[in-house]
Amino acid sequence: MRRVGLIGGMIALAATAWPAESFLDRVDEALTGAWLQNKVHVRLSGALDLEGYRSTLPAPGLVLADGRDLFNPRLSLFFDAQYGAHVYAFVGARADHGFDPDTGRAQVRLDEYALRLTPWAGRRAGVQLGKFSTVVGNWMPRHGSWDNPFVTAPLPYENLTGIWDDAAVRTGRVLLAWAGVRPRPVRGGVLQDKRRSVPIVWGPSYASGAAIFGGVGKFDAAFEVKNAALSSRPEQWDVAQVQWQHPTYSGRIGYRPDARWNIGFSASTGCYLQAAAAATLPGGTRLDDFRETVLAHDIGFAWHRVQVWAEVYRARFAIPRVGPADTTAYYLETKVKFSPRWFGALRWNQQFFSTVRDLDGTQVRWGREVARFDAAVGHRFTPQVQAKLQCSWQHEDAEQHAGRRQISAQLTTRF
Amino acid sequence: MISSRLLFFAALALALTAPAGAEAVLTGRVVLPKPTAAPVRSQRYEIVTKGGAVATNPPLAVVYLEGVFPPAATPPRAQLAQKDLTFVPSLLPVRAGTMVEFPNQDDTYHNIFSFSPAKRFDLGRYRAEERPVPTQRFDTPGLVTLRCDIHEHMRALILVLDTPHFVLSEPDGRYRLGGLPAGRYLLKVWIDSKTTRERPVELTDGATLTVDFP
């Protein structure tokens, strides 16, 4: 508790002593430039996040804490460049203790980079190459710490299932054990299991590949070919680690009747197992035989000070020696601005699992069904400094993890 | 004799047709700072886009006369639009008490807000076709920085002044401030949030005074 108090105190102190709006505006101007007779415009920007988590053990989602408390600082740097009207490029790098909140050693990563060509003037169409967030769903535009009204991601993007991506299960019983369904997991093993498990979509899924996109009237569409499935972990997104031997195909078709509504349908299919799992596959099968197939529907609505988002994901994992295992996750999220400085957000998340056959022949759900309620409040000290406090209550249909709570705080300074 | 009579009547006619207390005019030139680079619009997580650079806004100055002037009979009105994901104009001088409309002329949402002490507000998200057009009254003199919560690169300034006599300079720095009452005043030029220059001026009816701000 003292550590959480210390983190809270640091955040409060930092917020009150933080640089003034005009200073950060001058920094912004200094980091913006133009060359070649104003044809090339570049901007260096970034964000400093100070995050603190306090969770009942084991910590939910992708918070990889071995204790109750975790302090997670992160520095993000972005480089945006525009050449004329048709070429746009960006790079995003982060320095932290891991892509997800973790206790690991400090590291610097090149998380995102892409080149986008929009060859037709005035038309929403083009191609993008690089390592960039998936086109699936509607959470990506607000996954950054400044735009996300919460500290954590919605359930489909962070709730770890019983699927391991580095080995194939030997029986349905093993899958149930990995999922913590039966037998119940021991506390010490949960964190190790979390480091091998995957969710439906791993955060923004910055996998490497190419996308084509276009828009006509109220419709738009984007399709991508990437080197890793939606569920794959951040290490698999890098083209230096995984090439395109097992490509993942994803797409989204969107409909915007007007500025208030944004409705989309997405689909994706890709091999979710790492190359390391090949040695554990049944004879005569290949990695490509075991795919994650996702169908998703998203809807967004915004009007004055209210924003509402909802998504439902249906994922099927083809599991060696077990067969198809389905899971469905959805969330409903809303953000309300109370005043220029204060906002609040609520989110209801649930995830369900289909059944698989156990050794005794009974049909058993292959995951612990989860219901989670998130509530957050945020305050903007200046247009560049923001603090958020989130409380989460999670219920699982397993005795040991019946009720989990997590308090998360985040102070973001962008420049 | 005839010519002197003609001159007398001509002078009389001129005196009768000229308004009593003809207004003074101030002209001059302000040396403006170098243009800053146009902002880059972040499109990292919005893949279906048209592309294109954001327009460059040249530096401009606001020249205004400081003094004691009668209040406006009705609240003045002004407009600051959002078009092509930029504010038009990017710098708007207004008299204290002015009602400023913020029409959205894009086919996407904008969310204009300000944290400035002179005026703190948040209009929320609104579309082009929404009526009434969002409006705010600016009562307190000072500088108000406007931003869009959706489009990070968008920025504009409203300079709220306690005078009805102000003008925006041309991009080359030239200005002309007409319709001024005679008297002694302080002529000020606002160049940016850190730079305001001033000169005392004495205006006489019908005269044009040239004041440069090097």
Present the secondary structure layout.
The complex is a heterodimer of chains A (415) and B (214).
Chain A: H1 2-16, H2 21-30, E1 32-35, E2 40-55, E3 69-83, E4 87-96, E5 107-117, E6 125-131, H3 172-178, H4 187-194, E7 208-216, E8 219-226, E9 248-255, E10 261-271, E11 291-303, E12 306-319, E13 323-337, E14 342-353, E15 355-357, E16 363-365, E17 370-382, E18 385-396, E19 403-414
Antiparallel strand pairs in A: 1-2, 2-3, 2-19, 3-4, 4-5, 5-6, 6-7, 7-8, 8-9, 9-10, 10-11, 11-12, 12-13, 13-14, 14-17, 15-16, 17-18, 18-19
Chain B: H1 2-17, E1 24-29, E2 62-66, E3 77-79, E4 81-83, E5 86-88, E6 91-95, E7 98-101, E8 112-116, E9 119-122, E10 135-138, E11 142-148, E12 155-161, E13 166-168, E14 174-180, E15 183-192, E16 195-203, E17 208-210
Parallel strand pairs in B: 1-17, 3-7, 6-12
Antiparallel strand pairs in B: 1-14, 2-13, 2-15, 4-5, 7-10, 8-9, 8-11, 11-12, 15-16
